Amino acid sequence: MCEEIIRQTTQVGQPLKAISLRYFNPVGAHPSAHIGELPLGTPNNLVPFITQSAAGLRPPITIFGNDYNTSDGTCVRDYIHVVDLAKAHVKALQLLERTSSATYYDVFNVGTGTGNSVLEVIKTFEKATGVTLTYKTGPRRAGDIEQIYAEVDKSRDGLQWQAELSLEEGLRDAWRWQQKLLTPAQS
């Protein structure tokens, strides 16, 4: 709906150029740990729940379902490092600057093009940080999609952009951010 509103707006009235970026699952923080995600209340996303659970701020992680048709039975998502996401924004702005048409609109998926299961994310976090997580399997959540990840060919070709940072780097940076939140005097 929002994309359609933006598209229609570029076609009426004053000349306007716009790009919609479809994010997948942003993770991580700036490697400096000066900027990161701080959800209010209970996180709805896996990675902040993982980091807060590892820090002792949340109970053990519940994996919702282990009977999906995936390599380990858990849901698969496309996790993109926030630094890669920021670079995609810059590439989108550069594309708008070099577009000679007075009106322009396009849509690009911003992801890695590959998926990782919930269990893979947990294991990758443990490998990246050396922190062992406590988790259990619960029933599936209503409405969860088995697998979803970005088709990124258009972003690679149209924006001259692709994700460069790994899930491991994103999880390490997210953990560094979480640790900084626990010890603000060290900043």
Summarize the structure in words:
By secondary structure, the protein is an alpha/beta fold. It has a domain at 25-81 and 111-178: Alpha-Beta Complex (UDP-galactose 4-epimerase, domain 1). The chain is built from six helices and nine strands. The strands form four sheets. Strands 7-4-9 form a three-stranded mixed beta sheet. A two-stranded parallel sheet has the order 1-6. The protein has a two-stranded parallel sheet with strand order 2-5. Helix 4 (118-129) packs across helix 6 (167-182). It is globular and about 55 Å long.
Q: Judging by the overall fold, what is the CATH architecture of the domain at 25-81 and 111-178?
A: Alpha-Beta Complex
Q: Give start-end ranges of low-pLDDT stretches.
A: none
The structural class is: alpha/beta
- Taking the alpha carbons of the first and last residues, their distance comes to 42 Å
SS field, number of helical segments: 6
Task: Give the oligomer, counting copies of the same chain as homo and different chains as hetero.
Answer: single chain
Tell me about the largest β-sheet: 3 strands, mixed
Tally of DSSP β-strands: 9
Indicate the mean pLDDT: 94
- The H-and-E topology, N to C, reads as HEEHEEEHEEHEEHH
Describe this structure in a few short sentences.
With 187 residues, the chain is α/β, with parallel strands linked by helices.
Please outline the helices and strands.
Layout: H1 2-10, E1 17-23, E2 25-27, H2 46-54, E3 61-64, E4 76-77, E5 79-81, H3 82-98, E6 104-110, E7 116-117, H4 118-129, E8 135-138, E9 147-148, H5 153-158, H6 167-182
Parallel strand pairs: 1-6, 2-5, 3-8, 4-9
Antiparallel strand pairs: 4-7
Helix pairs in contact: 2-6, 4-6
